[in-house]
Write a structure and sequence with these properties.
Layout: E1 5-10, E2 13-18, H1 28-43, E3 49-54, H2 77-85, E4 90-95, E5 98-100, H3 102-108, E6 112-116, E7 120-122, H4 136-144, H5 146-155, E8 159-160, H6 161-167, E9 172-174, H7 178-191, H8 211-219, H9 228-241, H10 244-259, H11 262-276, E10 295-298, H12 302-313, E11 318-321, H13 325-344, H14 350-359, E12 360-363, E13 374-377, H15 383-396, E14 402-405, H16 412-417, E15 425-430, E16 439-443, H17 450-462, E17 466-470, H18 478-495, H19 499-509, H20 515-522, H21 524-537, H22 547-553, E18 566-567, E19 576-577, H23 579-591, H24 601-621, H25 628-639, H26 648-655, H27 657-671, H28 680-687
Helix pairs in contact: 1-2, 2-3, 4-5, 4-9, 5-9, 8-9, 9-10, 11-25, 12-13, 12-14, 18-24, 19-24, 22-23, 24-27, 27-28
Bound molecules: (S)-3-Hydroxyhexanoyl-CoA.
The site of (S)-3-Hydroxyhexanoyl-CoA has 25 residues, from β5, α3 and α11.
């Protein structure tokens, strides 16, 4: 008898109850228990119908992902579900929380489904690089039609109980006590002599001709590189074209292919890594947190406005400060425009727009910030400006307020030293556009207090971000690695590659865009200004002039001037190779006596990627990132590294650290450049035949 699933009777209804915290995942014990309790219920003469329910926070939220990759242990979920569907007694699923993946598949094996009004149901396997492998691709289309099933299975997003009722996925929605509601429903079915209702016996609705081919075309661009969405389509197609049993067989084959795919391994890695980053090594789980009910942002520019929107979206009132009235009004108008655009797309109602705008309180006076719990500075990236801001914040903010800087490159310890409370100062580095990008690099200063770190990590989640804690260094984790890649990309062009070729290699690896399209998007003048600043401050160690400096000096700033490394047509973000840029590059090479050669795609890949892996290893050694998974999550959520490759360091493990180390050493010998000096950690792991994760 399984301990995680139990059977009892409530009057004439048998109740099968799953109790396997935290999410009642369908691990081996649960599968075993579901089967034995079903058999017990069927053998119980006094039970006229059976109800399956989850204890705690949810109906089963899917198969136990931790079991994937281990040797299979019976009973298999499809077999268990088959037994439920074949039951001679009515079985009713009682759903609360999130009935996801295998959980919903269990519910689809029941005759009827009752859901709590707050419940959600879905088949999110695609997000793990999988497909519903316990009949979901065969049963859901029979219930809701092929098109609606494709939307749910390929999209992977859950639907709310009310919508599930309209779609026919659930038969009743109740509020209050779910078990009571489900028992009442079951008793009524018994009283009405309701028939068994096996989904496998239903016909599939076939809709538009060419549905599957068209569907594949419609997702091709967005799902580039992913395998699972396309397998999902094939499985649903099998539901339409094949008898149930054969469709199940086809689903099984396709599921098996995905289960052993590198894409799914990477996506599952990301699932756990994303949750793991919230657990900071050395920071006890019960570290107290400060209350955050009122926030403030300094600066109403693009960044400040975007940051403020995150708080308003999460229902947290936020003050936004500018020194000049005109800039403040402009910033607020842009925020409103952003919300209205979202409303136009149907993703917000006008009422929600007004509610969010009402949470954003503009101010011109620092004295208005005396009551805020957290303030995030998002002003110009210049130490003198930051100093003035933090001195003001130190003067006006109440004791215990968290003072955060959104700096992307400056020294957080120095910024903290401008205040008399460095323990309350932390970096919160948002990525542009701040209201969209999910990453938040939280930068711990030397003196940042533990409760400030715990509060900011928690706040990250509250405002919908994935917060990763990092240490202080130039560029922190993400930009430090990015800058190395960018320098390499520029150098590759010096040597004979052309910008479009470099971009294509990284695009083909799965990045949403290449390094040069990215710098055009961000604005080439930003990097230029930083380089010029360094050249003034420290001419000996400053970066040498390169051809991108010439572009900026020729007015080519990127997309905003419709000319950067590439040309852009008005209203079109597609990068077009530029003859003018080719000339500037050729002249730069000539002026600097650089002889060109043919640069292969393989060399571009190795130099742009291995330089980041080497830097990532240095970042780990220095403790700037605590674990490889922190680096990987940063690259996925901050820079669009393809999820199906699991992050830069996960990818490196697949390539093999010895291969990478040997190349890094070779480049070091050839160039003498310090950037290629193999990180001792990389050297050690390569020698031991290990990876970052093994
Ligand atoms: C599937 O079902 C395949 C079948 O079709 C075919 C089989 C043959 N397994 O996210 P949270 C852990 S594939 C194992 O922080 P929330 C999670 O790691 C599966 N563990 O909570 C975390 O652990 P820890 C399809 C799981 O409230 C803890 O639970 N299902 C699983 O923000 C709490 O999670 C899915 O893809 C699991 N299935 O969100 C659903 N799920 O505390 C995946 C969670 O040690 N899960 N954990 O860090 C989710 O989307 C969210 O976890 C959920 C709760 C919405 C349920």
């Amino acid at each position: 008898m399984s301990e995680v699933v139990s059977y009892r009777r409530e009057g004439e209804i048998g109740v099968i109850s799953v109790n396997y915290p935290p999410v009642n995942a369908l691990g081996q014990g649960v599968r075993e228990g579901l089967r034995s309790c079903l058999r017990e219920g069927l053998a119980d003469d006094q039970a006229k119908a059976l109800v399956v329910i989850g204890e705690g926070r949810t109906f089963p939220a899917g198969a136990d992902i931790r079991e994937f990759g281990k040797p299979p242990a019976g009973p298999a979920l499809p077999d268990v579900i088959n037994e439920y569907e074949s039951s001679e007694k009515l079985v009713i699923a009682a759903i609360h929380g999130t009935a996801l993946g295998g959980g919903l598949e269990v519910a689809l094996g029941c005759d009827y489904r009752v859901a709590l009004d707050s419940a959600k149901v879905g088949l999110p396997e695609v997000k793990l690089g999988l497909l519903p492998g316990a009949g979901g691709t065969q049963r859901l289309p029979r219930l809701v039609g092929a098109k609606a099933a494709l939307d749910m299975i390929v999209g992977g997003n859950p639907v709310k109980a009310k919508n599930a009722l309209q779609m026919g996925i659930v038969d009743d929605v109740v509020s209050g006590d779910l078990l009571e509601g489900a028992l009442t429903y079951a008793r009524k079915l018994v009283a009405d002599n309701a028939p068994l209702r096996r989904i496998r016996d239903l016909d599939v609705q076939t809709e538009e001709a060419d549905l599957f081919a068209n569907y594949e075309k419609s997702i091709a661009r967005k799902q580039r590189g992913f395998k699972a969405p396309f397998h999902c389509i094939k499985a649903v197609q099998a539901a339409v074209e094949l008898p149930f049993e054969e469709g199940m067989k086809r689903e099984r084959e396709l599921f098996g292919e995905l289960l052993v795919s590198s894409e799914s391994a990477a996506q599952r890695h990301v699932f756990f890594a994303e949750r793991e980053v919230a657990k900071v090594p050395g920071l006890p789980k019960d570290t107290p947190k400060r209350d955050v009910n009122l926030a403030a942002v300094i600066g109403a520019g693009t960044m400040g406005g975007g940051i403020a929107m995150n708080f308003a979206n999460a229902g947290i009132p936020v003050k936004i400060l500018e020194v000049k009235e005109e800039a403040l009004e402009k910033g607020i108008a842009i925020i409103r425009k952003n919300y209205e655009n979202t409303a136009k797309k149907g993703r917000l109602t006008q009422e929600q727009v007004e509610q969010r705008m009402a949470l954003i309180q503009p101010t011109l006076s620092y004295d208005d910030l005396s009551d805020v719990d957290v303030v995030i500075e998002a002003v110009f990236e210049n130490m003198d400006v930051k100093e003035a801001v933090f001195k003001e914040l130190d003067r006006v903010c109440k004791p215990g307020a968290i003072l955060a800087t959104n700096t992307s490159t400056l020294d957080v310890n120095r910024i903290a030293s401008f205040t008399k409370r460095p323990q309350d100062v932390i970096g919160m580095h948002f990525f542009s556009p701040a209201n969209v990008m999910k990453l938040l690099e939280n930068v711990r200063g030397e003196k940042t207090a533990d409760d400030v770190i715990a509060t900011v990590m928690d706040l990250s989640r509250r405002i919908g971000k994935v917060g990763v804690l990092v240490g202080v260094c130039h560029g922190f984790v993400g930009n430090r690695m990015l800058h190395k890649r960018q320098a390499e990309a520029v150098q590759l062009v010096n040597e004979g590659a052309n910008p479009a070729q470099v971009d294509k290699v990284l695009f083909d690896l799965g990045f949403p865009m290449g390094p040069f399209a990215m710098s055009d998007l961000a604005g080439m003048d930003v990097g230029y200004r930083i380089r010029e600043e360094l050249r003034k401050e420290n001419p000996e160690n400053a970066p040498a002039r390169n051809w991108t400096d010439e572009l900026v000096e020729n007015g080519r700033m990127g997309q905003k001037t419709q000319a950067g490394v590439f040309d852009y047509k008005e209203g079109d973000r597609t990068p077009v190779p530029s003859a003018e840029v080719d000339k500037i590059i050729a002249k730069f090479r000539e002026d600097n006596g650089i002889a060109t050669r043919e640069v292969t795609d393989q060399e571009i890949l190795e130099r742009c990627m291995y330089v980041m892996v080497n830097e990532g290893a240095k970042i780990l050694e220095e403790g700037i990132a605590a674990r490889p998974l922190d680096v990987d999550v940063i690259w996925i959520y901050g820079y669009g590294f393809p999820v199906y490759r699991g992050g830069v360091l996960f990818w490196a493990d697949q390539v093999g650290l010895k291969t990478i180390h040997d190349k890094v050493s070779q480049f070091h010998q050839e160039t003498g450049d310090d950037v290629w000096k193999p990180a001792p950690l990389l050297e050690k792991l390569a020698k031991e035949g290990k990876g970052f994760y093994s």
